[in-house]
């Protein structure tokens, strides 16, 4: 199958019309959202949804998010809309917040991976909304990467993973946030299953106390059940090995440099992911500045792109850990998974030297 790429910056009307026709005929279409690129299918057609799992190589017990273009479409997809969902929808939709609640009968189990609950989001991206509106069905869409790889934040990343597997990629340029949506379950106590650009603090300002699922910054224990099935899988892994170094910016940089030269000596090619605050400390080493520690959203915006692009050309990536307040949590959640939780404490490591 030939994969066609259409720029929706140049040809929004033609691109979204063709995309909507493909979705309605049961085919897959990759499209931009403000978080990452999605791989979409008609969310009411179980057979079409199964094609997503095939194209991605996604384990079939990992449920998908349904994307809608009108807030009022939510009531068709949930058994009922609980009161506390209303202020969240008013405040954060359209935007990077996914809400989970009991599903309505119309939602096929292929979407929910057999669960009785379904995740729904209304994206703000212009192309995404035009596509959903024209398709006139909810679009089931996970990130448009091969399962296990970093999520795509531009059309080239999608093409790298999906060439010849899907008929169409809509190219809307770079994604604004660069990490996937915040996933909030409204079944029982409101619980964040996956952190994103809508933070715990932002949600609490609207609905009061919100819990964080236990596995956000650590791997699931042997007997733990995943609240969000996606969390149990290997995720965001680039071709290179990733090591995260935690500590104060100064100690982190000293430890990263020392590891850098040890690895070079062992014959490895190494790249450092530095921050605005530490970049000057890596003079003479190969380092890429990916953003500002004080503004973790700048790190989020670049992480997946850098993991894909730099991860393809070196053996080891040394990345700085950051504080996990606000959007730092979304960043560390993705970075630690990309590293398979390989994490070094700078202070302890420097004492050993
Ligand atoms: P992705 O589409 O790749 O961003 O993954 C969607 C994420 O939402 C995965 O981590 C899923 O496990 C999670 N998710 C989707 N639906 C549900 C659900 N009904 N219950 C719990 N987690 C869900
Ligand atoms: Mg994904």
The string of secondary-structure elements, in order, is EHEEHEHHEHEHEHEEEHEEHEEHEHEH
Strands side by side in the biggest sheet: 1-8-2-3-7-4-6-5-9-10-11
Measured between the Cα atoms of the first and last residue, the distance is 55 Å
Low-confidence residue ranges: none
Give the class from helix and strand content and strand pairing: alpha/beta
Question: How helical, in percent, are the residues?
Answer: 25-40%
Strand content: 15-25%
Radius of gyration: 20 Å
Provide the list of bound ligands, each named once.
adenosine monophosphate, magnesium ion
- On the 0 to 100 scale, the average pLDDT is 95
- DSSP E strands, number: 16
- State the major sheet: 11 strands, mixed
What does the overall shape look like? Answer: globular
* Number of DSSP helical runs: 12
Summary tags:
353 residues; alpha/beta; 11-stranded mixed sheet; 12 helices; globular; binds adenosine monophosphate; binds magnesium ion
Detail the topology: elements first, then pairings.
Layout: E1 4-7, H1 12-24, E2 29-31, E3 38-42, H2 46-56, E4 65-67, H3 74-77, H4 85-92, E5 97-102, H5 109-112, E6 117-121, H6 126-135, E7 139-140, H7 155-162, E8 168-171, E9 182-185, E10 191-194, H8 200-207, E11 211-212, E12 241-246, H9 249-265, E13 270-274, E14 287-289, H10 296-311, E15 316-320, H11 328-338, E16 343-345, H12 346-352
Parallel strand pairs: 1-8, 2-8, 4-6, 5-9, 10-11, 12-15, 12-16, 13-14, 13-15
Antiparallel strand pairs: 2-3, 3-7, 4-7, 5-6, 9-10
Helix pairs in contact: 1-6, 9-12, 10-11
Adenosine monophosphate is lined by residues 62-65, 100, 112, 115, 117-119, 142-143, 180, 183, 193-194, 228-230.
């Amino acid at each position: 199958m030939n994969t066609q790429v259409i720029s929706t910056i140049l040809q929004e009307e033609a691109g979204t019309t063709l995309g909507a026709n493909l979705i309605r005929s049961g085919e897959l279409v990759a499209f931009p959202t403000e978080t990452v690129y999605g791989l979409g299918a008609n969310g009411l057609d179980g057979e079409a949804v199964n094609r997503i799992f095939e194209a991605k190589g996604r384990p079939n017990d990992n449920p998908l998010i349904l994307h809608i273009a009108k807030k009022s479409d939510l009531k068709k997809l949930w058994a009922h809309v609980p009161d506390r969902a209303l202020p969240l929808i008013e405040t954060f939709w359209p935007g990077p917040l996914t809400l989970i609640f009991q599903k309505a009968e119309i939602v096929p189990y292929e979407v929910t991976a057999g669960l009785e609950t379904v995740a729904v989001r209304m994206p703000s991206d212009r192309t995404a909304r035009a596509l959903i509106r024209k398709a006139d069905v909810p679009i089931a869409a996970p990130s448009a990467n091969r399962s296990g790889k970093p999520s795509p934040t531009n059309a080239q990343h999608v093409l790298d993973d999906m060439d010849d597997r899907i008929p169409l990629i809509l190219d809307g340029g770079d994604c604004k946030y660069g990490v996937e949506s915040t996933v909030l379950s409204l079944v029982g106590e409101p619980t964040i299953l996956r952190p994103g650009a809508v933070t715990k603090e932002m949600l609490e300002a609207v609905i009061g106390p919100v819990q964080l699922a236990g596995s956000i910054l650590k791997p699931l224990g042997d007997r733990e059940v995943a609240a969000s099935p996606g969390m149990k899988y290997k995720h965001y892994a680039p071709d290179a090995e990733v090591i995260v170094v935690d500590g104060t910016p100064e100690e982190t940089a000293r430890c990263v440099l020392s590891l850098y030269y040890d690895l070079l000596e062992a014959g490895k090619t190494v790249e450092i992911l530095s921050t605005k605050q530490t970049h000057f400390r890596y003079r003479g080493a190969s380092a890429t500045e990916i953003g500002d520690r004080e503004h973790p959203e700048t790190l989020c915006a670049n992480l997946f792109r850098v993991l894909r692009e730099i991860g393809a050309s070196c053996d080891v990536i040394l990345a700085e850990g950051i504080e996990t307040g606000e959007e730092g949590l979304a960043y560390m959640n993705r970075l630690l998974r990309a590293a398979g939780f390989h994490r070094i404490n700078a202070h302890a490591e420097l004492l050993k030297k």
